[in-house]
Amino acid sequence: MVTISAIAKSWGTSRPYASRCVNHLGCPRTSLQAAQEWREYCASKRLPTNPKQIAKLFGEDDNDSECPPTSIDSLHDALEAAIEAQEQAHWLLQDGIGEANDSKMAMLLTVHNKALELRLKAEAQYRDALKTGLEQ
Predict the structure, then answer these.
(1) Range of the domain at 115
(2) Residue from 71, 58, 52 nearest 132 by CA
(3) pLDDT in tens, 76-115
(4) What is the C-alpha to C-alpha distance for residues 84 and 98, in angstroms, rounded to an integer?
(5) Cα 76 versus chain centre, distance
(6) What is the rounded CA–CA span in Å between residue 26 and residue 35?
(7) CB within 8 A of 43, min separation 6: which ones?
(8) How far is 134 from 136, CA to CA, in rounded Å?
(9) Domain co-membership, 24 together with 76
(10) Number of structural domains, the chain?
């Protein structure tokens, strides 16, 4: 059995972070190889939520610092992003159903439910904007 300190050292992270991964998130302590594989699969799945990080991820230019006004097109883009995020969360959940431990399943269910909630909110906002636009 590998110590938490050894895992933290091999990852190049703090011991409290490695401890949280082992004790609360399901990182195995059987070997450093298993811990590294777990980290690559589980600890790096979170997508960025900061708009600047998302722009960098998609290679968009971040020259103007002002946010453009909200329009139907931007709401449609947000809706498409919410749909894609929910579908990705659904696939992660489906992949983890057979092989995940309880803590990982709880995390996957939480991510899926949050993504679904955000998708439904985005759809409602888009429908409201369309309705308002058609009434004017």
Answers:
(1) 47-136
(2) 71
(3) 888 888 888 888 888 888 888 877 677 778 888 888 888 8
(4) 23
(5) 20
(6) 10
(7) 21, 25, 27
(8) 6
(9) no
(10) 2
